[in-house]
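Predict the assembly for these two chains.
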Amino acid sequence: MLTPLEIEALRISLQVSGTALLIILVPGIAMAWLLARHEFFGKSLLDGLVHLPLVLPPVVVGYLLLVVMGRRGIVGGWLYEHLGLSLPFTWQGAALAGGVMAFPLLVRAVRLSLEAVDPRLEAAARTLGASRLRVFFTITLPLAVPGLVTGAVLAFARALSEFGATITFASNIPGETRTLPLALYSLIQTPGMEDAAARLCVVSIVVAMASLVASEWLARRTRRRMAGRDRGES
Amino acid sequence: MLELCIGHRQGSFDVDVDIMAPGQGVTALFGHSGSGKTTLLRMLAGLDRPDRGHIALNNRTFVDTERRIFVPPHQRRLGVVFQEARLFPHYRVRSNLTYARRITGGAAFDRVVDLLGIESLLARMPGALSGGETRRVAIGRALLAEPEMLLMDEPLTGLDGARKQELLDYIVRLTREIDLPILFVSHDPEELMAIAEQLVVLDRGQVIASDRLETLLSRSDLNPWLGGFEASTLLTARVLRHDPAWHATRLTLGDGQRLTLPLLDSGEAQDVRVRVRRRDVAIALSHQGDSSFRNQLDAVIEALSPGAPGTLDVTLVVGEQRLFSRITLEAAEALGLRPGLAVVALIRSVSLAG
C-alpha cells in the first residue's frame, strides 16, 4: 500500500517526534509546575523565553541550535569532545529541533491544567502526612493528566510537522533526517512527482488526525473516571 | 494541652489570641464568619504561618516564631476535616481513606468504616457520593491518619436539616467512642450545644471568653455573642429505662433525682446531655402534686442576678449541676427568694442536646 520511500519517511517522522516528546516531557512538566505554582524574580522573562520558539521563525531556532549545539557550539563542542556526540545532521538532532519547537505548546497545556488543580486538595493531602513530592505525584500530576495528554499530543503533532528548524539544524538526509514534511518538500521540488507528493500529503493528514482522535479518547476516559460513572456503583 | 498564642495581621483586623485548651474532649472555636476561627485552625494545621507567636500540642512545638521553628503540615499528625470535604476525585473512597497510609486495613480500619457507616461506599468514586456521604468519608480519612487531634472546620455547613442532623449524630457518636481530642470550628450554636465541652468565643480576632460550655452559657454578659444559644442549661444524665407506653424515657441525675423526656432511642445506662431552656424553668417553694409539670427537681438557690428589665436570673444547684431560671422580679419578691433557700425547680420541657 505504501511505497518504501513513504514507509521510511513515516518511520523517521514517528521516531523523531516520539523522541522529541520523550526529551521534553519531564523538563516541560517541571517548567509548567514552576510557572504555575511559584512566584520568583524573573518569572516573566523565563515565561517569555519558553514561548520564544512559538513566535520566532523556525529557521532562526535552527540556526541558534547550530550555534549552541553544533560541534563548535558551547554545549555541542563539549558533547563532541567528551562524549563523541554530534547532533547536527543526525535524526537525534532532528528530534532535538522538534522538541525545542514543541516545548512551548507542552508547557502551556500542562501549566493550564496544573493551575486548574484545586490547591485545597493539595493542602488536604499535606495534612494527611504527604510530603510535597508525594502530593505532586499522587494529587497534582494525576489531576492534571487530561491537560498533560492534550499537551503531549500537541507537542507530538508539532514535532511531526516541524520543518524549518529541522532542515537548518539536521538537514534533509534521506534515511536519517528526512521526515514526512521534508520528504514532501523534496518531492515537490522534483518535477513529475506530483502524485507521490499528494500521497505523502494524505499520509501526513492521517497521522495527524489519528493522534488527535487518540488524545480526545484518552481525555474523555480520564474525565469519565473522575466523574465516578466508571464502575462507580457497587 | 493545646496552646495557641498567636499575633497575626489578617485583612482589616489583627488576630491576637492566647488560648489554652485541654488535650482531650471537644473544644469549640465559636464566632461569626470573619472572626478568625478558620485562620486559627489553618495555622494549627500548618497551612498558614502566623506573623508571631507559638503553637504547641501536648508539649510538641509546631510553631515558634522566636526560635524560628515551623513544623511542616505533613509532620504534625493532625487530622483535618475541611468544610468542603476535599476528597480526592481521582481515587476511590477506599484509597481516599487509606491515603495517609497509617491504617490501611484490619480491625482499626473496619472500626472507623463501621462507625461512620461507609462500608457500602468503599468502591465508589467521590463524584458519585451524596453530600452527607462525602463528609463522612472525609471524617474517616482524617481518623485513619491516626491524628493526635482532630480538627473540624464547619463540617456540617451546606447540608440540609435531615442530613445535618444525621452527620451530627455520627460526630457525637465518634466523640463518645473514640478517645481523641477534637477542635471544632463552627458558627452554629445548635451544633456546639450538641458536642462542645470547652468553648472559645472569638470576635474579630480576639478571644471574648474561653471556658467550659456550661459555664459560659450562664454568663449573661456574653449574650451579645451567645444570644443564639437561647440561654439554657446542659445537664448530664443517665438513661434509666424507656417507657414506650407513655412515649417517655426516664433519666437519673447524679444525685438520684429523676427526669422524664420524650422517648429517646439511646441505650439504657448511657450518659446523655439534655438541654433545659432558661425560660422553661419555673420555681416553687414545694412540690406541686396537682400540676402538669412532671419534672420537679429539688434545688438550692446559689445566686440571684438582675436580668432583662423586671426579671431576675436565678442560678440553682441541683446535685452537683447548675440550672438556670429566669423569673419576674415580682414573683421573686412574693416567694421571698434568696441565696441558700431550698426550692423546687419546675421544668416545663427538656430536650436532648443534639
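Residues 4-38+47-225 of chain A form a domain with the MetI-like fold fold (CATH 1.10.3720.10). Chain A has a mean pLDDT of 90.
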